[in-house]
Amino acid sequence: MNVHTTQPKGMAAIADVDPYPFYDAIRAEAPLVWDESMNGWLVTSYELCHFVERHEDRYRHPYATASKELIEIKGGARNITILQGDEHRKMHGSCSACSSRRWSSSIARRN
Questions:
Q1: What is the mean pLDDT of residues 44-56?
Q2: Is there a contact between 75 and 81 (Cβ–Cβ < 8 Å)?
Q3: Phi/psi at 2 (nearest 5 deg)?
Q4: Which long-range contacts does 35-39 make (Cβ < 8 Å, 24+ apart)?
Q5: How far apart are CA 88 and CA 78, in angstroms?
Q6: Mean local confidence (pLDDT), 19-28
Q7: What is the DSSP letter of 11?
Q8: Which of 66, 78, 83, 101 could form a disulfide with 87 if both were Cys (CB 3.0 to 4.6 A apart)?
């Protein structure tokens, strides 16, 4: 697997611009790219994202040590981006069920 550890512009540099050209560029570089500006790895392939998301025991959750202020900004401790482990899986299952094709089709028929 190709791993690049240098990045001319990182995620921090694209805060106020269209991010998609940056995403396309890093995807073309490698499926895993070190971003100096964020001091972390950018996972650019679906397969690796899926693997990382399914193995919380191997990878640190970015909000594992979130401050009270950040948790409040994110909408509280029950926000799906804050939850971890079984609580996250339960919430993800509920959200996935709500966005399923059958569910969304039933809503569309009612409107």
A1: 87
A2: no
A3: -80, 135
A4: 35/7, 35/10, 35/11, 36/6, 36/7, 36/10, 37/7, 37/9, 37/10, 37/11, 37/12, 37/13, 38/10, 38/11, 38/12
A5: 9
A6: 90
A7: G
A8: 83
